[in-house]
Here is the input.
Amino acid sequence: MIVKTDQIIDFGSTNQQKQQQFDLEHNEQPPQQQRQYPYPVKFVTINTCSTLYRQWSKLKKKSIYKRAIDGLNLEIEYADTIDLCRNKDNDNLITILALHGAPGSHEDFEQYIQYFGSKQIRFIAPNYPDINITIQTKVFRHSAEEKFEYIKDFLRAINVKSIDLILSHSSSIYPTVRLLCDQNDVHVNAVAFFNPVGHRRIQAMRPAWFTEGSVKIYQNKFGRTVYQIFGKGFIKVTGSVTVRPDSMNNVMLSAQTMRYSKYKQLEKYLRKLKENQIPTLWVCGDNDRLVEKEIFYEMIDIMEGKECNWQKYDCNGKMLTQYQPDSNIRILFFEQSGHYTFQKHSNEVIKECDKFLNQILHQRNNHHYHNHHHHHKIHKNTDNIDHH
Here is the structure.
């Protein structure tokens, strides 16, 4: 029986921890095999989460975060099409940021990177850390707060201050809504949620005693070994996890991401998006084994999406109903499609993302024009002000 999480996470001798800390700080992680991608891939090293871990270390006397108050130095692999853009002026580039789910990588967006990259749009897709970072650092839990800090620090490192559109798959909705509601470090114009996970416990997280308990066990070395040996069989018997259990690490990464997601706060953030009138595109299928469609419907209700905002497709991607042009909320709904609808029906989704982006840019340019025009009118009219 697990009584205290801290003991479980703190496995390993102090020397081991120091060595691991040293390795991380000096980035001596095992050299990854260089894969060839059909789009440009770059690397950047960031320091992240120091402010967050400093705050968290004060919450408990024996906090595990005390060892990480200087943050984590991490190397990020990311797709970036900037070198394909003729105009490399950061301020004027149309920019898309794509955030993958757990597990996932920038490869999930391959067709999107190639399409938008060929249109002179800067498309950036970073990889999140995988489960190994939890094993190495014993602090990074893939929580919404950590991922939010990670993305902000990454964008700062590559000098991106403005994003026209975020594409956010699955559990990335949690850090994404924080970015959209924050807008201090990075200005974001609009968002597309691809098969987002929900504001209440999703299908794949049930039963709670299994996923939440197993996340804690998995944070310790012995527990990991037991899970890697027996986990797949257990999952097949209970049918409780819907991520493909090819790798127990991926299953646990998915469970851990959900466990620390603060999913109950999502409703508050969605209401704020509606209030701030942030243009939102939703993509969903009715055969998602990870997130039941009722959760998706509820999220659309929170955003006050109406029938006129829905565009429905049959299982072959043939459009059945069309949403109103210029809708601020757009919903693409595909029959018999699962958790990777944006890949299965990539042609249709890319086309709609492109239209959505054009509308956002049109609004943005109009806004700039009106502000500029208004500014000149004020200057012209200052001499003729009629003082009452």
Summary: The CA atoms of residues 198 and 295 lie 6 Å apart. Residues 207-260 form one domain. The chain is about 45% helix and 15% strand.
